[in-house]
Q: What sequence folds into this?
């Protein structure tokens, strides 16, 4: 016989845990502070205690930078094919479908036209959630097209990078996107149109070695990992631990490869200043 | 000399050794083995044809890395009538993993730039196995600008397992150095011919590989990452590189089929390393043909075509 204090009917069971809606609180991985999510969002997802920059997706950047959170998106429906019939260890189509499902995006970059403090801009924002922000044919093509639009309309271009590099599943076609984007930027440069590159965590590989490092002005978010080779590969090559702070935004600032490390809460203002320099 | 022999080369190498022995005996003892030699040579040829026609992608990668394969300076020595190496990036150092200089080929002045591997341990200490530092790319760019100033075509030889992933390289902006070369090469006002003579790994290859014409030798590979690197990411196991090479479609023929390589050059039977002189002779002929072809376009046409060539790469649906 069941003990009298054991409940037999499921319906009268109360929840064991206190109901906390998903994502109401977040713990800062750097200082351990427990932060109310809405508070975090108000601070552009920067820990107000230690300035740790949480990774945010493309939506957040668009809302943060575009006046009124409004923009006109280009080529939103563009999707990758599977030119190499890549199927190891799972078919590339399935991987793409899963990424699309997960992010609600069709690819790892979004390109828009908008205004920043009343000034016309073209903006490309990469999204790390989509196969590590990797650059395949679509990322390369969308970046190339937004550069072409900037050339045509003479709008300044801003690219926010977040990428593990070129996408392996499209092999050499991904590699060539580096030239596709860099060659367009050369034309933009010759036409005297500004390009501001913003490096976020992480920016590595083929993206670093193409458009990310070619900004007229390069900003980086605090603590962002930025490099060509990834830390794991370097560790393997040299057979020892990497120095503290190696390949961080602050490291690159010191070595002369970025213009400024900019707190995300000041990013719009910093871009604004460069744009005003152009428009003035 | 200790020779490295690949698995699928073993039988061929044995036949080669027999022929060599017989020829030696003829010389030393005045014997006659012509019939036997002839027989063996025929056997070699038919076996080699069969073997090399059916290589899988990984076997081609192995051939591309064959330690006896001719490197950039070997070809320059055979192809150029005059050659003067120029050193240094004028900023930090001279990187021996990339060589460059002025040359004359059949009375045409050209700038030649290429990755340079070492033939032995000592050489590879200096050449860093053909893995450039940022200074290598910056030297290359300086020389390309020089070539532009003198209105001379540029030939680049690609043969690298990748840009060097080290502390100093990162500190001095490996990514920036490669990015800058892509940017500048895309609008250099002289013809650029790139030839993959061995390995073309990733941005390290591309950093001197933006070209009007991309030519690949038959047993070479070129891709976004090494097969080992790909395997260690996809399968968490670098030993599955052969599988990764298949998946990424890395061979010269693959790149030709994908529309990336403009031309594939047949190597002497058994690969460039079995007959380097013949290979150099073929290469020289191809270089002269290609330069002739590039000369037929105006500079504006050339730049437009270069932009479009890379602009067209990619497969997507809208």
A:
């Amino acid at each position: 016989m069941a003990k009298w204090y054991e409940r037999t009917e499921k319906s009268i069971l109360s929840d064991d845990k206190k109901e906390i809606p998903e994502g109401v609180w977040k713990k800062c991985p750097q200082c351990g502070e427990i932060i109310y999510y809405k508070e975090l969002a108000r601070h552009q997802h920067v820990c107000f205690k230690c300035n740790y920059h949480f990774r945010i997706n493309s939506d957040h950047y668009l809302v943060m930078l575009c006046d009124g959170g409004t923009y006109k998106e280009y080529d939103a429906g563009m999707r990758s094919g599977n030119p190499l019939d890549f199927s190891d260890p799972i078919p590339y189509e399935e991987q793409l479908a899963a990424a699309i499902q997960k992010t609600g995006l069709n690819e790892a970059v979004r390109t828009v036209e908008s205004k920043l403090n009343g000034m016309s801009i073209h903006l490309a924002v990469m999204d790390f959630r989509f196969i590590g922000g990797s650059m395949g044919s679509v990322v390369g093509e969308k970046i190339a097209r937004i550069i072409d639009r900037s050339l045509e309309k003479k709008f300044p271009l801003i690219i926010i990078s977040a990428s593990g590099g070129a996408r392996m599943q499209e092999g050499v076609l991904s590699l060539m996107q580096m030239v596709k984007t860099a060659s367009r930027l050369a034309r933009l440069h010759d036409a005297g149109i500004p390009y501001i590159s913003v490096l976020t965590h992480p920016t590595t590989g083929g993206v670093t070695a193409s458009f990310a490092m070619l900004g007229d002005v390069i900003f980086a978010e605090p603590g962002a990992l930025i490099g060509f080779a990834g830390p794991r590969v370097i560790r393997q090559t040299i057979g020892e631990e990497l120095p503290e702070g190696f390949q961080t935004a602050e490291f690159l600032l010191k070595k002369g490869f970025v213009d400024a490390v900019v707190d995300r809460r000041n990013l719009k203002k910093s871009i604004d200043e460069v744009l005003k320099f152009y428009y003035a | 000399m200790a020779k490295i022999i690949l698995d699928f080369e073993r039988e061929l190498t044995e036949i080669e050794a027999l022929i060599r022995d017989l020829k030696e005996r003829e010389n030393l003892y005045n014997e006659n083995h012509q019939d036997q030699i002839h027989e063996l040579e025929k056997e070699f040829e038919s076996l080699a044809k069969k073997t090399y026609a059916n290589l899988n992608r990984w076997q081609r990668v192995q051939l591309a890395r064959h330690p006896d394969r001719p490197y950039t300076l070997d070809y320059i020595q055979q192809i150029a009538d005059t050659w003067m190496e120029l050193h240094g990036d004028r900023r930090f150092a001279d990187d021996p993993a990339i060589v460059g200089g002025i040359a004359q080929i059949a009375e045409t002045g050209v700038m030649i730039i290429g990755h340079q591997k070492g033939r032995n341990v000592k050489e590879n200490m200096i050449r860093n196995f053909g893995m450039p530092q940022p200074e290598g790319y910056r030297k290359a760019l300086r020389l390309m600008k020089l070539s532009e100033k003198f209105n001379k075509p540029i030939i680049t030889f690609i043969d690298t397992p990748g840009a060097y992933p080290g502390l100093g390289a990162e500190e001095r902006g490996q990514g920036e150095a490669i990015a800058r070369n892509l940017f500048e090469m895309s609008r250099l006002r002289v013809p650029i011919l790139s030839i993959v003579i061995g390995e073309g790994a990733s941005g390290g290859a591309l950093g001197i590989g933006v070209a009007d014409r991309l030519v690949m030798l038959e047993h070479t590979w070129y891709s976004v990452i090494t097969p080992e690197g790909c395997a260690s990411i996809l399968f968490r196991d670098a030993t599955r590189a052969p599988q990764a090479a298949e998946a990424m479609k890395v061979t010269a023929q693959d790149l030709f089929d994908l529309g990336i390589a403009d031309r594939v050059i047949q190597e002497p039977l058994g690969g460039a390393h079995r007959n380097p002189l013949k290979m150099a002779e073929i290469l020289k002929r191809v270089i002269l043909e290609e330069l002739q072809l590039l000369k037929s376009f105006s500079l504006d046409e050339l730049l437009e075509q270069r932009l479009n060539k890379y602009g067209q790469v990619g497969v997507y649906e809208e």
User: Anything to note?
Assistant: Chain B touches chain A through 55 residues (CB under 8 Å). The first helix of chain B runs from residue 10 to 29. Chain B has a mean pLDDT of 95.
